[in-house]
Design a protein that fits this description.
It is built from six helices and eight strands, in the order E-H-E-E-E-E-H-E-E-E-H-H-H-H. By secondary structure, it is α/β, with parallel strands linked by helices. It starts with 5 loop residues before the first strand and ends in a 10-residue tail after the last helix.
Length: about 190
Amino acid sequence: MAKNTICVWYDKDAEAAARFYAETFPDSAVGAIQRAPSDYPSGKKGDVLVVEFKVAGVSCIGLNGGPVFKHNEAFSFQIATDDQAETDRYWNAIVGNGGQESACGWCKDKWGVSWQITPRVLMEALAAGGDEAKRAFDAMMGMKKIDVAAIKAARRGLFPRLPTHARRHVGIALVRNLRRVGGLRASGNR
């Protein structure tokens, strides 16, 4: 066991969570599994109590402590990604396995643990400071999963690509304004 280890509390699924992380992220593995030596408030003698695991090189233990404490966004794992394919792979693995999307690159796995799937290009833009950081930050604020191409465009000062739902609303507003000023006839003729 490492000298400094993150302890993550689970209701009863620490082993399943550790195995999922090991299958999903590189440099991840499941280590020793310790069983309860006697009954305890949330389990019985012989139940899995502690699971040692690594997530992307970070040493952790999962403790099956029962439903007393719940996860929240005050703790999250941040996974740096190199491109959209890697971002999609991790995001889709977490969300597609019973997790849920949040905002600005955050999602939760099915055990309630928060994850930040963060492309390096976003962190580089924020570190650049000034207008470049502001544009990248503003683009990120409208996203759930981070869109690498939109962040790159924002860094360059180009209009960021909008999500599909936003494009539809912008398109409807544009058509209405064009009709209002006479640039587009209501019949759809251009």
